[in-house]
Specification:
binds inosinic acid, Rossmann fold, 6-stranded mixed beta sheet
């Protein structure tokens, strides 16, 4: 049963598992089996997705984390994006896969592409579990997208509202928000 505050379950744990498996197959097809991919998980929201995704992939890989704080100032303004934790590893000459939970305005992904692209990786691709195309303010290249959703605030499977709900095994729409989101 959904906890208080969750109005609708958008994607069940089974639906997510199946889609993540499909994404892993697509990613495997685009990468060589003899060259490890550097997976870059964007904290915190992608931690559940990346854990499932990498276990469904056959391509060899190494995993690193990057942490971003984005203080969005609205749909069209990038607000302020701050790098809280950089990668521990070098990515020059390596195939890189950014793993994001959700692409909303696109500012975060746009920023990541700029800073990681400047480090001359061999290739730079992005996988996101969710995307809200109607909210896009800047072009953010996505190679693998799990589900397209409407402009709704969703939680669960790593996604939070004020640090809550990350542990839900499904993705749900929040019923009532105590404070404005953006
Ligand atoms: P963007 O820079 O506007 O694309 O925002 C991306 C970040 O905003 C995501 O990585 C999430 O942390 C957060 N975000 C955007 N929409 C949602 C949502 O519906 N639920 C939870 N977090 C969200």
């Amino acid at each position: 049963m959904a906890p208080p505050g969750i109005r609708t379950i958008l994607f069940t744990a089974n639906q997510i598992r199946d889609r993540v498996g499909e994404l892993a197959c697509e990613i495997d097809k685009d990468h060589r089996p003899d060259e490890p991919v550097q997976v870059v998980a964007v904290l915190k929201g992608s931690f559940v997705f990346v854990a499932d995704l990498i276990r469904a992939m056959r391509t060899p890989l190494t995993l690193d984390f990057i942490a971003i704080a984005s203080y969005s100032a609205g749909t069209t303004s990038p607000g302020e994006i701050q790098l809280l934790k950089d990668l521990d590893s070098k990515i020059e000459g390596r195939p890189v896969l950014i793993v994001e939970d959700i692409v909303d305005t696109g500012h975060t992904l746009h920023y990541l592409h700029n800073i990681l692209g400047a480090r001359a990786p061999k290739s730079l691709r992005t996988a996101c579990l969710l995307t809200k195309p109607s909210r896009r303010a800047v072009t953010a290249p996505i190679d693998y997208a799990g589900f397209e959703i409407e402009d709704r605030f969703v939680v669960g499977y790593g996604l939070d509202y004020r640090e809550q709900f990350r542990q839900l095994p499904y993705i749900g729409i929040l019923d009532e928000l105590t404070e404005p989101l953006r």
